[in-house]
Design a protein that fits this description.
The protein has 171 residues and is of the alpha+beta class. The chain is built from 5 helices and 7 strands, in the order βαααβββαβαββ. Strands 1-2-3-4 form a 4-stranded antiparallel β-sheet, with helices on both faces. A hairpin with a 2-residue loop joins β6 and β7. The protein is globular, with a radius of gyration of 16 Å. The N and C termini lie far apart (39 Å).
Length: 171
């Protein structure tokens, strides 16, 4: 797939996007093969519960997942969200927007290490993601495994660039 650098990227809260777009993304077989927590059909009721849960993260922590809009089109969702005592950086994108992941990643890291001044972020990849050389080139290092909802994930951690003003995760 040819990577196309987006001309515009907007971050919106999940309730601002059409639920049909989110439902289509979460039921896309190419996307679901890397979402071990996605079980059964993701319909209107599941979408409403999902969006409400993500909005609770915002209410409790002051940050959370975004909807990504690229060149005016819903491209997926992701961002920063708490996972235990750490902050998880995640992205779930429509296949036609997979090439925009780097631009989104850079925006999210700017938030994590800039505004939020986090000491590190982690990503969780399912064992089905065997091609991780790109993750390692970005500076992420293996940091063990963890289980969430009965699914196993490989954890990778990226430390903030040394600035001396990083702080632990806000609770």
């Amino acid at each position: 797939m040819q990577a196309k650098f987006p001309s515009s990227i907007a971050f919106k809260r999940l309730p601002e996007v059409d639920p049909a777009d989110l439902i289509a993304l979460m039921n896309d077989p190419l996307v679901r093969r890397h979402l071990p927590l996605a079980r059964g059909t993701f319909g209107v009721a599941e979408c409403a519960r999902f969006v409400a849960a993500k909005e609770r993260i915002w209410a409790e922590h002051g940050y959370g997942p975004w909807a990504f809009v690229i060149d005016g089109e819903f491209a997926g969702w992701g961002g920063l969200q708490p996972e235990g005592d750490e902050v998880d950086l995640g992205m779930v994108l429509r296949p036609r927007h997979w090439g925009a992941g780097r631009a989104l990643y850079e925006r999210l890291l700017a938030e994590a290490f800039g505004e939020m001044r986090l000491a590190s972020v982690m990503i969780l990849l399912p064992p089905s993601r065997v091609r991780v050389s790109g993750v390692l080139r970005l500076g992420f290092r293996p940091a063990g495994e963890m289980e969430i909802g009965g699914a196993r994930f490989i954890r990778y951690r990226l430390a903030a660039p040394p600035t001396g003003d990083a702080r632990p995760v806000r609770r």
